[in-house]
Amino acid sequence: MPSDTYASALDALHQVFGFESFRGLQSQVIDGILAGRDALAVMPTGSGKSLCYQVPALVRPGTVLVISPLIALMQNQVMALQQLGVRAAALNSMLSFQESARVEDAMREGRLDLVYVAPERALGDWFRRLLTQTKIALVAVDEAHCVSQWGHDFRPEYLQLATLREQTGDAPFLALTATADAATRKDIVERLALKEALQFVAGFDRPNIRYAVEPKTTPKLQVLNAVRRHGGASGIVYCTTRNKTEQVAAQLQAENVTALPYHAGLDPQLRSRTLDRFLKEDGIVVVATIAFGMGIDKPDVRFVVHADAPKSLEAYYQETGRAGRDGLPSEAVMLYGLQDIVQSRALIEQGDQPDAQKRVEKQKLEQLVGFCETTRCRRQALLAYFGEAMPEPCGNCDSCLEPVESWDGTEAAQKLLSAVVRTGQRFGAAHVIDVLVGADTEAIGKWGHEQLPTFGVGKDIDRQTWRGVVRQLVAGGLLRVETEQYGALKLTEAARPVLKGETSVALRRDPTKPVRKARGTQERAPIGSDSEKLFEALRALRRELAKTQDVPPYVIFHDATLIEMAKSRPRDRLAFAQLPGVGATKVARYAEPFLAVIAEHVG
Ligand code: ADP
Ligand code: ZN
Predict the structure, then answer these.
(1) Which ligand 1 atom is the nearest neighbour of the CA of 299?
(2) Lowest-confidence segment of 285-299, 387-401, 433-447, 579-593 by average pLDDT
(3) Residues of the chain by 3-state class (helix, strand, coil), percent to 5
(4) Which parts of 60-111 fold into alpha helices (H)?
(5) What CATH number belongs to 9-201?
(6) Is residue 152 exposed (0-12), middle (13-18) or buried (19+ Cβ within 10 Å)?
(7) Which ranges in the chain are annotated with CATH 1.10.150.80?
(8) How confident is the model over 428-444, as a mean pLDDT?
(9) Is 47 a pocket residue for ligand 1 (Cβ < 6 Å)?
(10) Ranges for all domains in the chain classified under CATH 3.40.50.300
(11) In this structure, which topology does domain 406-508 adopt according to CATH?
């Protein structure tokens, strides 16, 4: 780009946003826009998509029109921009007639840098007229994958967005999304009628998220531990059923965690209050069905726990992706057990979807199971699923931090399979394991199973490990669990060669205790104990300021800024302005109270 434009873009980045440099693809996308080109940017959550149109809004003459389907998200961005001193507004159904009229006047008079609008509204005649009276600098279409009928978020109005060009003249179009495979990208370009569009596709990796999958052994405790590891931070716990969200929330409350259930069955008013608290208070844990999360733009979610396995790896990626948008260390923990596989399979089999779709769903489930059972780096496995090769293990997942051993489970598998056969393929895992370890139970006596040649042949292995063997054989398709027959285990065709000794079975050794905080990596605020105190004081001030303005704390300052503030302890406005995420407006508004807290602390 011409150097003066580049200079103004950098200037806006420093002065307004308080950031040092552009990240990843930002400068290339912004380059393209400032040169007047249409563009498509596929960048993962947290990579800073919004800056790609917010910076041009400050550099290009005219107003940037942002099409966004999610009202909550719009409101959030507008709030954050206003805090930065940027002239932004949203036009949506929450506004009164007068408020709308004020925004419209400001648009016509060129007094707005950005205006956010929902697609339905953008397409209406009234708004189109307004567009012809306004100088539009750029049309940014957020969540652009919604134009694709193949995706799960299809929105018919998106198909009409290309017609806005009739009113926006030669303003470039920028389509943005966090997920789009090649087919979806093609759809986006065609349906939005992007002209000779520049295409930017960033990788899927979210390096600040630590992935871990734990076998469900003591689920209640495992959830609690995950929450406790992040003491006082915000997080989400996903469960598959409404009932379970209430249960888990109650269990956490009993341990003094501020946990709130969230699901589609709750009163809408209660739901929106819960969402509001999650955004505006520190340290709320929402225990939710997957109905929660779409369109939540909270940057400081420090952990996502799956108390039950997700539906597919896509779902897993999306749900875990809600952690750590601000780039700070965050954690995704999934608990996974035999029941998860069995229930998910049953759900697919009993569904009334066409067979072709069942096959696809089953395949997706198998890929998820493969991910759970892998001994490889989780990130490598996850990225491979999205077709991305990662040359080295990541060093930030459970497999990398505590390498998983695999062991030759051929003999164990044979013992287990033959115990299943000898007991008539009529019993569930618990009883079969009792037989293997030679337990003295009522059922064993009743059925005379102590007479079987397999009785007690598995004494050398503990029950926990046996449960792992059962799970892995079910995961690997050697055993099937009959849900209609009280969970009886049955052999499949695939078990035959193992029983006959023709193939061997490699199993992963489940960790005996779940992976704890590993190798001195801290989950939050990597700062010393003295700075920790200052950090808490700064956080309290932020909370107070947020409350008086009725905005979420993170629109005042992100955690990253507070952490840096606690570490570097600026003494004057000049030093304060050097902090990451502190632009001119934030200095003017907030330097004084924060400097006062620092001065008091330093003494
Ligand atoms: P996305 O929309 O892609 O999920 P956001 O636009 O919300 O991402 O940005 C994610 C976070 O990264 C925000 O907290 C934002 O302030 C921060 N960020 C964006 N660009 C930069 C940059 N160049 N330098 C530092 N932080 C940035
Ligand atoms: Zn790894």
Answers:
(1) 14
(2) 285-299
(3) 50, 15, 35
(4) 71-83, 97-108
(5) 3.40.50.300
(6) exposed
(7) 526-602
(8) 95
(9) yes
(10) 9-201, 209-401
(11) Arc Repressor Mutant, subunit A (1.10.10)
Ligand 1 neighbour 299 (Cβ under 6 A): yes
206 CB less than 6 Å from ligand 1? no
Looking at the DSSP bridge assignments, the partners of residue 64 are: 114, 138
> Taking all residues of the chain, what is their mean pLDDT, rounded to a whole number?
91
| pLDDT at position 484 | 77
For residue 22, which atom of ligand 1 is closest to its CA? 23
> For residue 471, what is the enclosing H or E element?
helix 463-475
238 lines ligand 1 (CB under 6 A): no
Ligand 1 center–CA 170 separation, angstroms: 28
Name the nearest CA neighbour of 191 among 162, 170, 165.
162
Per-residue model confidence as pLDDT tens digits over 154-174: 899 999 999 999 999 999 999
At 478 the pLDDT is: 93
pLDDT of residue 371: 95
| Average pLDDT of the residues in 524-533 | 72
Find the 8 Cα to ligand 2 centroid distance in Å: 40
- Shortest-distance Cα residue to atom 14 of ligand 1: 326
Judged by its nearest atom, the ligand closest to the C-alpha of residue 26 is 1
Closest ligand relative to 210 C-alpha? 2
**Phi/psi zone of residue 18: left (φ > 0), alpha (ψ -120 to 50 degrees), beta?**
left
What letter does residue 491 receive in the DSSP assignment? E
Q: How far is the CA of 209 from the centre of ligand 2 (A)?
A: 11
Q: Which residues contact 152 (CB under 8 A, 6 or more apart)?
A: none
**Residue 89: which region, alpha, beta or left (left: phi > 0; alpha: psi -120 to 50)?**
beta
- Residues 526-602: name the CATH superfamily: HRDC domain (1.10.150.80)
Q: Cβ(19) to ligand 1 under 6 A? A: yes
Measured by CA distance, the residue closest to atom 13 of ligand 1 is 326
Q: How many of the other CB atoms lie within 10 Å of CB of 331?
A: 24
- Which CATH number applies to 209-401: 3.40.50.80, 3.40.50.300, 1.10.3080.10, 3.40.50.11030? 3.40.50.300
Q: Please tell me the pTM assigned to this model.
A: 0.83
Q: Which pair of structure tokens corresponds to residue 239?
A: 């469960």
**b vs e for 574-599, b when ≥16 Cβ sit within 10 Å of the residue's Cβ?**
eebbebebbbebbbeebbeebbebbe
508 forms bridges with which residues in the sheet? 406
Q: By three-state DSSP, how is residue 91 classified?
A: strand
Ligand 1 lined by 312 (C-beta under 6 Å): no
- For a ligand 1 pocket test, name from 50, 68, 78 the mutation site with the most ligand atoms within 8 angstroms of its C-beta: 50
Q: Which helix (H) or strand (E) holds 6?
A: helix 3-12
What is the secondary structure of 170-227 as a DSSP string?
T--EEEEES---HHHHHHHHHHTT-SS-EEEE-----TTEEEEEEE-SSHHHHHHHHH
Q: Which of 11, 16, 19 to mutate to test the pocket of ligand 1 (most atoms within 8 A of CB)?
A: 19
Atom of ligand 1 nearest to the CA of 51: 6
Q: Is 517 left (phi over 0), alpha (psi -120 to 50) or beta?
A: beta
Binding site membership of 23 for ligand 1 (Cβ less than 6 Å): yes
User: First-to-last CA distance in the chain?
Assistant: 49
Cα(13) to ligand 1 centroid in Å equals: 11
